[in-house]
Task: structure prediction
Amino acid sequence: MKRVAYILILMLGFISCQNNNSPKKKSTGISPKELKKKLVTTNQFLVKAEEQNIKDYISRRQYQMKETGSGLFYEIYKKGRGVKAEKGKIASLNFSISLLNGRTIYQSEKEGIKEFEIGKGGVESGLEEGILLLHVGDHARIIIPSHLAFGLLGDLNKIPEKATIIYDLELVNLK
Result:
């Protein structure tokens, strides 16, 4: 699957680097329209494969998760009694981030409490979406597919390219 992702990246790079003013060359024997169609098909395959991996992970652990329209999966396994998260508030959370293979990547015990302004960006879009489903004191698992996490490149540190990430978190406070 990684090999397919690398090929996809190379093909996208090749297409984006073409000079639109120069005459089109058919050195590959495939038209730009056919190439675009193949890239879309490849991307659809990768998205479906990632979704199946997530569903298999959920099934193995017997989680009772809900799916949002974007492909985010979440489960609130301990209800809090605080106010609901909303855009413009600063969220503080204890967290653990792991991969589908079970390897823990980041933890608030080592990294410190994570704080961010909801709706401003600066964190994974899947985390922003997931936080808006929570109340202060909630404990939740949020499975974020790669397109809502760090995408094709990963975080260029510990999270690999095209990685699904799992947040196990507690929304500690909203300011």
Q: What stands out?
A: The chain has a mean pLDDT of 89.
